[in-house]
Write a structure and sequence with these properties.
Elements: H1 3-14, H2 34-52, H3 60-89, H4 92-97, H5 101-117, H6 121-141
């Protein structure tokens, strides 16, 4: 071990740094399930547009490909946003207060994957419903009553 490393180790032993903890990498402290809601609304919107697409229109194949791409990108954003909330915001005390939380997140993440794989308004709506449940619990943990509002009802 180099002399500098031994010196630093000795200093650390004599003057230990205080322990620090944070619920996220930042810690930024900025969380909101609204970003997952917006992305899930886009999944539902693109699903509806895909189902309504007229295949006889000249550029239907191009439009179909674009809509599918958007739908899948937005479903992936949902998965990312929910994973951040689950991994960085929610703590053991939230699970104690809301024991259904794990199942809700599991169903939401599975619904996001299914929305990528399928072309189903029902599946996209289920995804939005699970995010609504997460929204309600999230804001309850902050002791705030934040209304669930859809951008595109």
């Amino acid at each position: 071990m180099a002399l500098s490393a031994r010196l630093l180790a000795c200093l650390d032993h004599v003057f230990p740094a205080p322990a620090a903890s944070a619920h996220c990498d930042g810690p930024c402290g900025v969380y909101d399930p609204a970003s997952a809601r917006v992305a899930a609304e886009a999944v539902l919107s693109m699903t509806r547009k895909l189902l309504d697409l007229d295949p006889s229109v000249a550029d239907a194949h191009n439009t179909f490909a674009r809509y599918v791409s958007i739908k899948e990108q937005q479903a992936e954003i949902v998965k990312h946003e929910l994973s951040v909330l689950w991994g960085d915001y929610f703590k053991p005390e939230h699970l104690e207060a809301y024991p259904e939380l794990h199942a809700i997140f599991w169903k939401a993440l599975k619904a996001a994957s299914a929305a990528k794989q399928q072309l189903s308004v029902e599946t996209a709506t289920e995804l939005l419903d699970e995010i609504h449940a997460i929204h309600d619990i999230f804001w309850a943990t902050k002791e705030r009553d934040v209304q669930w509002v859809l951008a595109n009802p």
